[in-house]
Structures are given as structure tokens and as C-alpha cells.
Amino acid sequence: MKTIKISDLTPGVIFDKPVYLDGENLLLPANIPLRTKDLERLKRWDIAEVRTDGEPINPTSSARDPQVFQDLFKGGPSTELLKKYTEAVKTLDAAFESLRNNRAPKAADINKIVESLLPAIRDHTDSMVAFTIHLAAGGSTSLAESSVNCMILSTVIGLILKLPPQRLLQLAIGALLHDIGMTKVPTELLEKTDNLSEEELNVIHRHTLFSYSYVTKVLKYPEEIGQIVLQHHERWDGKGYPRGLEGEHIALPARIVSLTDSFEAMVRDRPYRNSMIGYSAMRQVLNDNSRRFDSEILKVFIKSMGIYPIGSIVLLNDGSIGRVIRIHGDAPLRPTIRLIVDKDGRKVGDTENLVNDLLEEKSLFIAKAINPTDVNARSK
């Protein structure tokens, strides 16, 4: 490994291989930009250099990666789905803003969001999941958008688990409101770049208690929903908060939200949103080893998302390049791919619709996920 001085690093730099603090402890996965707060943290820790086998690469010029939606929604109901998604975020954002200003939002508004999104998630699962990974235009998303994303991902898991309608509804509402208590955490504390004191950490941890109290006492939702918002920061190994619950002592819906909330955070807080994001976050989740997450829930999550989530750009074994447009739950390594570059290196035109379903094309398989910037380098 070569050594790189911290003084030579700039926010946004991307390396094609992982970057380590000391050759063992990971700082950055491959193809993930270095954030300003990552750099500030290294300086606070008096770390003078990092190590990597990789080389810096240029980030994509756009944070949004709009080609994802051209590929995913050819012939699909993109406009109506996008309208449902954006309206849900807008409605929830207004509810959270009311709470910040000490005005009580209405449970009817929350129920309206869930009633609108549940059929869309059920009938257009892949498209709705794609929104959660690729839609935000750079930087951190709002609390409302993050909450809607968590609700979508949690509901997908609930559908695969075949939860009864009432429990699925409770899961959706709980996921949507899981971080409502964060509206009462001071903004300066959430944006602080220095290490948090014990008291400051306690303030942030108390958001679960506020969420529980508000959801059950003000919005009058049942205890089952209250337990979701209270327990979503508990860990499978018992090292979470607020009560240090372990294993199956944590409510099943809370275990689901714990996983989807963590995954959503991994894809959310990035200065560039490209098609490596979902794959990189999935790799991190897979490395959990039953510390934070229920391994059985993780298996279902993989079934819903695939190893290469919707929008990932992948290199196939015949040299062609494509974008993942559909997941096969029972075969997470064999999604459906829309070609971008064919095996002869020819860039596929926008009007062409060359699709390989790897579940049927047995001779083809994914060699690796690649960065979007590699596509032009490989095409003629």
C-alpha cells in the first residue's frame, strides 16, 4: 500500500480501491467520495496520513445521475410514481416543520402518506426502491425524505415477510415516524463537526424517547407503532439504546427499521449520488456479522434489494456493461440488466432496448460493479 498525506486530500476525492487509516481500519470504501467532515475528523484525531492500493478518480459531474431514471422507467409509470413520492416528502416535511414550531401535526396527514405509498410500493417495488437510492440531488437529504425512504424499504421487507395487513400498516407508519424526535434536537448539535460530549450524545439518544411519547400520546397511535420508534436504535448484540435490548427482545418491526434506517443513512450522506452508492452500502451491511442487525432480516433485505441494487452499473463476464433494472428476490446475484455497452465495446443507443435477464441467460454473470465514469472509457 502507498501512503497519502492528509494535507494532499480534498473533499470529494474518490479512490478506485478502499482507503485505510492504518492498513487495516477502513476509512473509505472504493468509489465513495471523501466528505468534508471525514477530513475534519482525521485532522482532529491528528492522523497525518492514510493508506491505499488505489488511485484517485474523477467523480461524476452530476450528483443526481439522471440516466438512472431514463433506464429504469422506459415504458414505465415514472411520472405518477415520482409525483406520489415527492408529495409524500412534501407532506411529511410540513408535518415535521409544524412540530419544530411547536404545532402538532395531524395523524390524518401521516395516514394519507401511507395510504398513497403502500399500493405504489406493492405494485412497483423496483421503481420505488430506485427512488430511495438515486433520487436525492447530492448532499444530505431532508429528514422527511430520509423517513419516506426508510418507510419504502421497510415496507418492501414487510411484504416479503408476508406480514398481515394491519402489521404491515403499523410497520409503514412506524418507519415513517421513526425519527420524528429528531425535530427536537438542536440544529447546531446535529451539524456539529467536533466530537460530541457525553451529554450531547445523551441529548441525541433521547430522540427515541420523545418519538415514542409523541407517537403514542399526541398522535394516539397504538403501542405497536410506539415500540418501533422507541427501539429502532437497539442492536442485535445488545449494545444499542435506549434500553440495551438484545436479539428477539427487540420488536420485529423495530429490527426491520433498524436495518433500513442504517442502509438509508449510508446512501444518504454522500456529496455525490452515483450508481455505486447502493452496492457500496450493501457491502457494508453484509459485513455486519450479527452485531447490529438480525441476520434473518438481513437475508430478507438482500432478497428485496439484491447484492447489486437497482441502478447499479455492472460489468458482465462477456465484457458488456449494463445497469440493474430489476431484482430477482430468490436469485440476488442474477438481476435483469439493460445494456449500456455491448460485448464488442459498442455504446448502446438510447432507442435500443437490449435487456439481459441473468436468471435466464445462464452463461452470463456479473463480474463486478463499476463506477459510471468507467463506461465511456470502455465504449467505442
Characterise this structure:
46% of the residues lie in helices and 11% in strands. β7 and β8 form a beta hairpin. The chain folds into three domains: 2-57, Molybdopterin biosynthesis moea protein, domain 2 (Alpha-Beta Complex), CATH 3.90.105; 67-305, Hypothetical protein af1432; 313-378, no CATH class. The protein contains 15 helices and eleven strands. With 380 residues, the protein is of the alpha+beta class. A five-stranded antiparallel β-sheet has the order 10-9-8-7-11. It starts with a strand and ends with a helix. It has helices at residues 36-44, 67-72, 78-100, 107-123, 125-134, 143-160, 165-177, 187-190, 198-205, 207-218, 223-231, 252-268, 277-286, 295-305, 373-378, and strands at residues 2-5, 14-15, 19-20, 26-28, 49-52, 56-57, 313-316, 321-326, 336-341, 355-357, 366-369.
Gist of the model:
The protein contains 15 helices and eleven strands. The protein is of the alpha+beta class and 380 residues long. It has three domains: 2-57, Molybdopterin biosynthesis moea protein, domain 2 (Alpha-Beta Complex), CATH 3.90.105; 67-305, Hypothetical protein af1432 (Orthogonal Bundle); 313-378, no CATH class.
